[in-house]
Structures are given as C-alpha cells and as structure tokens.
Amino acid sequence: MPIPLLGASLEELTDIVSQLEMPTYTAKQISDWLYKKRVTDINEMSNISVKNRDLLKEKYKVGRLAPVKVTVSKDETKKYLFRTEKDHFIETVFIPEEHRNTLCVSSQIGCKMNCVFCMTGKQGFMGQLSASEILNQILSVPEAEKITNLVFMGMGEPFDNTVELLRTLNILTANYGYAWSPYRITVSTIGLIPGMQTFLEKSNCNLAISLHSPFHSERLELMPIEKAYPISQVVEVLKNYNFGRQRKLSFEYIMFDKFNDTMRHASELVRLLKGMNARVNLIRFHAIPNVSLRSSSDERMKWFCDYLNNNGILATIRKSRGEDISAACGLLSTLENKKMS
After folding, report:
1. Range of the domain at 188
2. Cβ-proximal residues to 47 (8 Å cutoff; 6+ apart), any chain
3. Which of 24, 112, 125, 254 is the most buried (most CB within 10 A)?
C-alpha cells in the first residue's frame, strides 16, 4: 500500500529521494508541491521528471483524502467527517467569524481519557492519527485557504499522541511547510504533564488547559486524569515556565450548575491562578446522553466571569457554536457514522 508523503519533514523527504537515487533538490520540490501548492496527486508535480514521478508512485502517494460528509449549523459552523487510512472516522469543525476563521482539528480516533462531560470519550479509543491524517484535515476542508487559526480541540487528547502532534506542528510552522506563526495555533490538553513539557520545550504554539474545577476531588469526578496528574501539579509546572510576550496560555472551564459555579469555586480559582499571565475561558455545558450534569445559567456565568475579572484573573465567556449539529465543545463523536464503514 502506498505511503503518504503528506506529513513528511524536509529531512525525511531528503532521505526518500536519496533512497530513490533522485537529485537532493527534489526533496524541496516535493515539499513545495505538498505544502505550498497543496497538490492532491504526484502527477501534478510538474517540475519533477516523469521518470522520477513514476518512481515515487511505486511506493508513495500524496495522502490527501476529501471529507465524506459535511453538516452545516444554523450559525454557519460546519462539521466535516473524514475517513482515516484504516477506515475509521474523525470529525473536524470549521468556525467562521467576522475577523477570523478557526479550524478545530482532531488528533486521535476517539479518546482514552473518558471525561464525564465529553462524547468523544464515550466512544472509546480506536487509534492515533498520523501527521498525514492531521494535516489532511487542514488541507482538505473546502475553506482551507480561509483558515486563520487552528485549535487542537477536536477528538482526542493531543499529548497522548505527542510524536505525531509535534511532527504536524513542525510542518505547519516551518519555512519549507506552511510557515504559519505558532501564535495562530492552540493545543488543548487535560493535563498530561510529560507530553505538555515536551510540547513547551519543542514548540512555541499556544497552550490551553482543561481545568473545570480547582478542587482535586471534584475534578477527579469529572476527569480520571486528575488521579495521575492533579491540576495543582499542572499549574505548578506552568508557573515555572516563561511563556514570553506572544505565546498565550489559557484555561478552559466548563460551567456546571451547582457543581463548579459557586463562590467557593470562584475564589479558589483566583487563588490557584493568581500571578499567572493567562485567560480563563468559561464554556457552557452541552448536554450529552446519560450525564445528569446541567449547564450553569447565563446569569451565573456572567457573575462568575465578573468575579474573576474583578479579582485579577482575565476571564471571558466563550460563545457556543454549532450545538445544533453536535459540533460544539464536548459533542464530537463518530459513533453514528460507523455504518458508513
């Protein structure tokens, strides 16, 4: 079966052309076709000889796969369904706004983390996405040329797939690749400290932490990962790291009625995050089957937001997008698409 070229670094492409006894400069030509000109077939690489294109095609392919389905929300958010190389499915969300267009990208097929409030975790884990499959989401949505921001907040835990994540981020930000500013890319994690530390050392992209409660016992109820990597340890690691002027740190906080939206929670959140140059994004909970939690009211969310801002913690309420097509935070799942395989 042909191997995707998409997801290969310039160094790896150099190794490929060397093995095929092609001129070294062919590697840069291939990277330009893949990442600058965004071709879908090796035959389109017109400045490479027919002989060398035929050699490439014996073992390789570009690796582009178009989405198999799109669902459009009343607010114009679009959810794309992609088939993976091994015939599983993943979802990717395009969120248009007045001054920016954000693509929410998946990093795994399902998820191992089993957070109570997340549909992706309910479907279980079916495999890692390769750098090729991650990049394909970005290249193959029809709005690819309009994307201004990327968020790794789709299906999966990015730091449970750190190797392929970093390969992807390298290509996205490298001059031979897409040459994106790392400050246009945000990676979200529930707090896998080893992967997070590797990311902080090897990438300059923004970081978002799923927090959801400042108290250990309550966060453990929501997120099993709290047992291995308590939020207090995650915050301690981050407090010892210099983010610089442009790199952004944020905390995601889904608000649950009478569970994590009280004065006790607000004041503890202020204590936990005091002195950090970070933003707290407050998020409305989107109900999922067999989970009794309910979202905080709009009034409660505003009060909570005002309390944080008045006590030195920058906070905003994130606008919910795509809930009617199950594209909003915590709703991505491909269980209903299994029949398509």
Report:
1. 69-340
2. 29
3. 254
